[in-house]
Amino acid sequence: MGKPLRILLVEDNRDDDALIERQLRAGGYDPVLRRVETAEEMRAALHEEGFDAVVADYNLPRFNALEALETLRAAHEDLPFIIVSGGIGEEVAAAAMKAGAHDYVMKDNLKRLVPAIEREIRDAADRLLARQGEEALRESEARYRALVENAPEAIVVLDVDRNAFVDANDNAVKLFKLPLEQLLSVGPEAVCPPFQSDGLPSEGLHRGYVDRALRGGRPVFEWLHRDAEGKEIPCEVRFIRLPSSKQRLIRGQSSPTFPKAQWTSSRRCWPRTLPIVIRTANKPCRRSRPSTCRPSGAAT
C-alpha cells in the first residue's frame, strides 16, 4: 500500500491523467486525483476537498495554468503548484514561475514529477510552520502589550547597546511626565538624578544592575527617579532581560515607594526632641493656653 496523496489535476486529456497516476504509483504513492477543466470546477474542488498539490497542464480549451494559479491564489490556498506540459518554451516556463508556479515538468520527462511534488510539499510545510510561528509571535506580542498597558507599574524597555528606551507604557509617561515620543528618544540618564540618595553616582549603579539582568539575574532595588519637572521620586525597580535574537533588551518596572529617607530623617530627630518635650510638658506655654501643653494622659 502506497502513501496517500491527493492531487488536484487541471487536465482535459484522460490519457495524460492515466500517465500521471501511473508515475505517482511508481513513486510509491497511492494517489487520488480529482480532475477539473474549468475555473468553476477548480473553485468547487478547492471548497469541497483538501489537496496536497496541484498539477496543471499549461493549456486547456477553456482554461490554462496561469488562470488556475490565480484561482488557487484567490482561494487563499498555499499548495504546491506544478505545471506539466508537452511543449512550452523556456520563456513561457520562466513567466509561469515568476507568476507563482513552483516548478514545471515536461510530459516526456515525467520521472521528475514525484521528486518535484515531494520537494514542494516539504517547502509548503515549512512555509506553514513559519506562518504559524509568526502568528504565535504576533499573538504573544499582543498579550504582552495588553499586560504592559494594564500593569500598575511604570514599565520601560531599554535597548542596552543604544542606551535608549524603545518602549514604554502609559504609567511610565505619567511617572516621568514626558510625552511618549520624547521618552523613546532618551535613555535612563534623562529620568534619573546624577546621584542616588546614598550619594553614589546613578550611572555606575545603573550599569551594574543592567549587567546583572543581562547575565540572567532579576535584580530588585531601590532607585531615585527624576521627572521632567525635576521632582525626585523614590521607587522600587525590577529588571529582567527580554528574549530577543537581535537586541539586548531589559524591561524595567518602577513602583513609587514611601520616601524612606524622609522617614529615617524624622527618626534621627527623636533623641534631641524627646527630652525637650518631657522637660516642658508640665509647664504652661507662654504663648499658648495651658491646656494645649498638657502631657498626654494628664488630668484637666
Pattern of helices and strands: EHEHEHEHEHEEHHHEEEHH
* Terminal CA distance: 108 Å
Number of helices: 10
Q: How many structural units, i.e. domains?
A: 2
- The top level CATH class name of the largest domain: Alpha Beta
Major beta-sheet overview: 5 strands, parallel
Question: What would you say this structure looks like, in words?
Answer:
This protein is an alpha/beta fold and 300 residues long. It has 2 domains: 3-132, Response regulator (Rossmann fold), CATH 3.40.50; 151-263, Beta-Lactamase, CATH 3.30.450. 42% of the residues lie in helices and 22% in strands. It has 10 helices and 10 strands. It has helices spanning 14-26, 39-48, 65-74, 90-99, 113-150, 170-176, 180-183, 202-214, 260-268, 270-280; strands at 3-10, 29-36, 53-57, 81-85, 103-106, 154-159, 164-168, 220-226, 232-242, 249-256. The strands form 2 sheets. It has a 5-stranded parallel sheet, sandwiched between helices. Strands 7-6-10-9-8 form a 5-stranded antiparallel sheet. A hairpin with a 4-residue loop joins strand 6 and strand 7. Helix 2 (39-48) packs parallel to helix 3 (65-74). The longest helix is centred in the middle third of the chain and has 38 residues, at 113-150. The radius of gyration is 37 Å and the shape is rod-shaped.
